[in-house]
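Subject: for your reference before the review

Hello V.,

The reviewers asked for a structural picture of the protein, and I figured it would be easier to keep everything in one thread rather than splitting it across files. Below is the amino acid sequence we used in the manuscript, unchanged from the supplementary table.
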Amino acid sequence: MKIIILGSGAALPDPARCQTSIYLSVAGKHLLFDCGDGCTRQLVKAGINPAQIDELYLTHLHHDHICDYPNFIISGWMLGRNKPLKVYGPKGVRRFSEYLLEQGAFQADFLARSHHAARQQNIVAVRPDVIEISPGSIREGADYSVDAVHVDHLPHAICECFGLSLTSATKKVVFSGDTAPCPALIALSHQADLLIHECTFPESIIAHRQAQGTGHHGHTSPIELGQLAQASEVKSLVATHFGHFDTESAVLKQAAAKHLPAAIVGPHLLDEVVEDIRRHYSGPLQLAHDLLRIDL
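And here is what came back from the structure prediction:
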């Protein structure tokens, strides 16, 4: 099993981190978990043809987890995809997909490109098989299975948010999506070989945001992540979805100054994240960076 963190950032356009997306290969299949900005380009940079992806799993519909979707679909079409992509996601993902593709926002592009014989021959590439999911088993097979649980990020009336686990014959990997600590994800992660979990802000930034009245809603702090990983007895942990607190970009520092004060923002805060996770979790730990590869 090969895993590549394509994007390890959060909602802002960060020159050092693309938005959330994770590639996984298992049993001859190529899977994608979330599809934030930069996902398609990062696949190519990692030597993976986007047309090879068999299944896409979307944890929720925040823009930093889905905004590269039309680029990914159109690029796969142009790069020779010859079968429909399977897309799994929360309620609303079918409407989202239909709105963007042939009869939606990119209609003119589809009309123009579909005049070419080569694009007519693989028109199925832009007609994904969309499956709206609920908690429980969402993909079963002899090679691997995928299960979903509700997590605590957004009110369900706005959008259901999911954590996902993939279990093969020998390994179990869990993706948290965006979430505050919740019992369902702890149970899903029990004794996982790898937990890839969001850790959006360090404790010092959380304290500053709370003092400013911004809060820290629907996310997991480093201390909480260490507690969660210990309670779940995970065999290894990757922290990801970093909210630009380590940025060296003058643009981001200026734009986010109220919530991420420039005086304390910088790469040194990654050391704080490690220290706080280590208060409760002593197992193998990595902080994600773009194109981090993990072999299980």
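For the response letter, the relevant points are probably these. The longest helix spans residues 222-232. The radius of gyration is 19 Å.

Happy to draft the paragraph if you're swamped.

O.
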